[in-house]
Amino acid sequence: MSTSRRDPQDVDASLDWGRMSVMEAIGHVAVIGAGSMGSGIAQLAAAAGHEAHLVDVVDGAASAALARIASSLGQATDRGRISRDAAADALARVHVESRLEDLPECGLVIEAIREDLEVKRRLFAELAALQAPTTVLASNTSSLDIGAIASAVHDPERVIGLHFFNPPTVMRLVEIIHSDASARPVLDHVTSLMRAWGKTPVHCSSTPGFIVNRVARPFYGEAQRMLEAGVADAATLDACLREAGFRMGPLELTDFIGQDVNLAVGTSVWEQTGRDERYAPTALQQRLVADGHLGRKSGEGIYRYAGGAGPQDASPDEGRMAELVGGPITTDPVARTVAMLVNEALDLVHRGEASAADVDLAMTLGTNYPRGPIAWGREIGHDVIHAQLVELDAAFPGGRYRPSPALSATV
To answer: How does pLDDT run across 251-280, given as a tens digit for each residue?
Structure first.
């Protein structure tokens, strides 16, 4: 796990793009992995004007992705977001390959395969051997350490994280992640490229979960713990958070994401932080996954679903909502969740892993939170947040609710 507080190394690594525009310098773009994320990234690159090469070793996967891209571009033309000529041109720029050896020289290769560190390491070693030394190698991992991936490459200064959000054709946010070895010219170049693609980049060191998946852990975890403890039913807890301005409640959101997917990311963060109690998976979510109750995609999770409709058992108890919100911090789902979000965000900034501005931008764009947690903490007052966490820590000892040093220093 990388815990560097330094800026990325300002090394050259022969990555001198001269006076070319960033689009010209990058040229061809390859995406490895033809799932929904990979095909979306390939569509983005092609729509921006690159020759985009989509590679998947599974027979027929890349061709199926090409059909998805054609359908997505067709929907975009129907909605007036792109002209039919521009959509046709973009589709013509997408090429499918079955072998890495068939790729031309690319300025950027983005890996979007399954979250398995050793598989990614082997892939990056192969890419480094096949592509030119000036090719930027990027991982779309949502939580794995970029430094660990880059350690398989003899010139790790060209390896970065480039974490898109689903669907990548719609979501504006991109997290650009650096390891200790990542070269500043690479980061600057890719930052310019993402802006040229119409994206909003934020920067973070390779801390577990990066910005969004690290800071968001309490949003899911507090609701699950309160549900486990019988504080209120799921619909009531979710309704409290929606009333506070969150687009979806945390329990319905994990059903939407997939309980298995959400648990996997949370477990990755927990493992990479040395099993810090702050990120410990809940027994509730572990049971759901073990029982195959994965959310909407399986027909049952926290809620039950039928025929593609919304949750069937989602009527909140408004009387209970009125009792909870504004009550004791231990049973107030809004105050408890916000206090933990603020604490987590401040801790990230305190460790030097991201700027306050990038944290707030990432959480409002990447998760649609009503406010950035840093700004929210200033609004509430650090003294209030600190006192709430001290009370929670006393009620639930073990370290999950320990205040960040950044909070302690201000009270």
So the answer is: 999 999 999 999 999 999 999 999 999 999
Q: Would you say 215 and 345 are in contact if contact means Cβ atoms under 8 Å apart?
A: yes
Q: Which CATH entry fits the domain spanning 22-205: 3.40.50.1240, 3.40.50.720, 1.10.10.10, 1.20.1050.10?
A: 3.40.50.720
The answer to whether 175 is a known catalytic residue is yes
Does this model's pTM top 0.70? Answer: yes
- 10 Å Cβ neighbour count for 280? 18
Q: Of 97, 157, 175, 252, which residue is the catalytic one?
A: 175
Measure the CA angle with vertex 267, ends 271 and 217; round to 5°: 110
Classify domain 214-282+316-408 by CATH architecture. Answer: Orthogonal Bundle (1.10)
Closest by alpha carbon to 204, among 196, 195, 215? 215
Known catalytic residue at 142: yes
Residue 125: C-alpha distances to residues 15, 155, 233, 355 (Å): 19, 10, 49, 31
